[in-house]
Design brief:
6 helices; elongated
């Protein structure tokens, strides 16, 4: 889902701000459904001493691991259907504020880097059986709402007829 350059390139500088795409595969939600997410995160180097001299520019796996752990921990507490309803795709979502911003202080202390923004770029649902089950669940929910609405309309008609 994420394409990377085949070869590594030597660089002589550290970018002040940089984006990272992170694939978090096969997350199991509280209702045992699974999904994979591509999370785009923008980082900013605040204390360059730590990533340059302590980690010798090998801090990306640690940053990605912290983001991954935070997202997985959050997802394990919610149902997939609720997550899909409350976590829209794109930079306008509140995914950063609700889910990943909580680790900014730890990231800054440990790695000298903080997250500026983060959002879900893509959601891929698990196997086809899970997709069918989610679709059936959503259909049942809509059917139930339609039945309630029809009953309310019928009740309104009966009340209007009785009072008329």
């Amino acid at each position: 889902m994420i394409q990377v350059d085949p070869g590594l390139a030597e660089v002589d500088h550290l970018l002040w701000r940089f984006p990272r795409a992170l694939l978090i595969a096969d997350i199991e939600f509280s209702d045992t459904f699974t999904a994979s997410l591509i999370v785009l995160t923008n980082f900013q180097v605040v204390m360059p001493l730590i990533p340059v001299f302590t980690y010798k520019a090998q801090f990306f796996p640690q940053l990605e691991s912290l983001v991954r752990a935070t997202v997985v921990d959050y997802c394990r507490k919610v149902k997939l259907v609720d997550f899909l309803k409350t976590s829209p795709i794109g930079p306008e979502s509140d995914f950063f504020a609700v889910v990943v911003s909580q680790v900014n202080e730890e990231m800054l202390k440990q790695y000298g880097v903080e997250m500026m923004s983060s959002w879900i770029a893509e959601i891929s649902l698990g196997d086809s059986e899970e997709r069918k089950a989610l679709k059936a669940l959503e259909l049942a929910e809509l059917s139930g709402q339609a039945a309630i609405r029809a009953a309310e309309r019928q009740a309104t008609v009966k009340i209007t007829t009785a009072t008329g």
